[in-house]
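Task card 7
Instruction: Convert sequence to structure tokens.
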Amino acid sequence: MTHDILSEQGRQWPVLVFLLCLLAFKVLFIVFSALELSPDEAYYWDWSRHLAWGYYSKPPMVAWLMALFTKLFGNNETGVRLPAALLSVTGLWFVYKLAREFYSERAARWALLSATLAPGAVAMSFIMTIDAPLICFWSIGLYVFWRALQSSGCAWWLLTGVVVGLGLLSKQTMVAFGVCAFLFMVFSRYRRLLLTPMPYLAAGIAFVMILPTLWWNYHHEWITFQHTAHHFEGLKQPRVFDILGLLGLLGTQIVIMSPATGILAIFTAGRMAVAWNRLRVEEHYLFFFGPLPFFLTMLLALRQDVNANWPAPFCLTFFLLLAGEWDRVSAGVSDRLISWFRPSVAVGLVLAVIIHAVPFLLSASAYSGGKWDMTARLKGWEDLAMEVHARLTSIQGEPPFLLSNRRQVVSVLAFYLPGQPQVLCWPEPGRIRNQYDLWPQFADKKGHSALIVLERKDPVPSGMAQSFDEILELPDIEISLGQQTRRYRVLYGRGFHLAEAP
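Output:
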């Protein structure tokens, strides 16, 4: 027995070494790629300066992680993005562990490799958004919940509750994990466990973990729930099905998984679904957490707009199903479709190399900022901040406070301006649009002057124009990204006199 355990552990060491090397590579890429924060990353970073149990649109995990890592590594791009690399590699380890539990060592390694090379996974490993912790905890949850189903004790159930709770603190999508788990138990031999206290113990732990976030929402008019509900108000016209919307979302998911692997995985999942009764319970498990919610999300796209990242956690099990089928075929069953699995992974490798090379190659080319420059959103913000800083230092007397009408401009200026000051966001009357509208902003600004930065296409909000004694036009700011230019209007407002905060 001891020899078998040591032998099993020995086979995992190369994978651990691979993942540690992968983590080191991702960290080095974050440090040396010189990619600036996206506006969303800067927005979440601004949250991290005001730690709370909840925020306007999302639970608090992303802000907590950024606060911890920037405390350790500094308020810079590296400190903000290091959690993404660590969460990515951690999630991949549990993808490997689950594939190994279900299939062979070889299948597990191929599942790990295909998941590692997916363009979505590559991008998510150096862009720190809410999806990085969600995918990590979803991956861990898949493994620990399966172990809980096999166990006779409560330890794995307790761990499942903790992991699901962490996922719920990351993003609302984790609710789907609980739904998938319940449905799988109902429609499998594990339904008997619903008559035991174990599943309810796990659910209770997850619920207790999010109670402070629910309490925060209660005191903020359930704002996160209101924001989430708005995502489902975009229904198309009655009895009209948007086929192009569905195909567009499906195509995006195929690209996220890697074009060749994505097409192969979806065809394979469809074929396996037809042969449902011949599948093993492990594959049923993967279906309930992957293809089933994935295709339900595709159907949702027939009726409303669906964000491309919504199905992201559901894509994980496609890699396991595909690797498992390839392993079965490699054992002696002829299957022309599955024989394309390894070439599809090779395509993923080529794409991963291109994605990592693009920031270095495009920045020195004539195509920088062009239509196909996927890094354009990660450029130009520091230049904008430096131009704004130059306007600030040219103003005599008391320094004005900073103001914009878009949270994207507010957050990148807050991050990149020297000293990282608090930048205020002008609200729309009677409407909460973002986290800035929930923070007190204008109570102590009466009589002060403001430097106002607007996107060039935006008019001055009427309420803003009426809230200053005088507004002067300053020279515009133009930020060249190569083939595109961002233009900003800069105003100087004297004598802020709003009687009460907007």
